Give the backbone structure.
Amino acid sequence: MPKPKRYRCIVCGRYFPEGQGIVIRRAGIELAFHSKTCLAKFFKLFIERIDESEFKRVSRELIKEFEEALKTKQAIKRI
Ligand SMILES: [Zn+2]
């Protein structure tokens, strides 16, 4: 049996097995976080440094999506 893959948290250096933690892959880059706290630490810096116009565009888009999802949830509750 192959050994389960292990990841290393890029924030604190802790190792964790596949299925635990949060692993994000995009554009050939793999970001591994052992906990939500480490993910939050990373993304706080990430959004401070990312291009401002791109940040604005994506933020507005996601805020809208979450607002829509909340409306739907509330609509279901009311029924
Ligand atoms: Zn960590």
In short: Residues 9, 11-12, 14, 33-35, 38 surround zinc ion (CB under 6 Å). The two ends are 51 Å apart (CA to CA).
